[in-house]
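hiii so um. not sure if this is the right channel but i have a protein structure encoded as tokens and i wanna go backwards to a sequence. like what aa goes where. can anyone help
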């Protein structure tokens, strides 16, 4: 039974590309007019069980409010996938 459990865990690690897979999705924009030295950064994350069942939710509004941002300049989405859970974070930049 122990060998079967270890084989299943090993197969799950191989199938999930080394137990962790992260990706960062960004849209192209012209950021030449943004002064990142004075920009505030806010982040809000949502977690999912088995990658599909939401445990929490995320919102651009909440991420901006956490950093007291009144004018959004740039929004970024970050995903991280693990064996039993995944997370999606929204990062906001603004003034």
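sure thing!! here u go:
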């Amino acid at each position: 039974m122990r060998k079967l459990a270890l084989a299943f865990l090993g197969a799950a690690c191989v199938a999930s590309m080394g137990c962790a897979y992260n990706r960062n999705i960004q849209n192209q924009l012209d950021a030449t007019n943004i002064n990142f030295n004075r920009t505030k950064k806010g982040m809000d994350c949502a977690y999912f069980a088995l990658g599909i069942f939401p445990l929490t939710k995320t919102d651009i509004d909440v991420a901006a409010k956490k950093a007291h941002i009144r004018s959004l300049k740039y929004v970024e989405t970050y995903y991280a996938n693990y064996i039993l859970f995944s997370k999606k974070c929204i990062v906001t930049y603004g003034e």
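oh and The longest strand covers residues 72-82.
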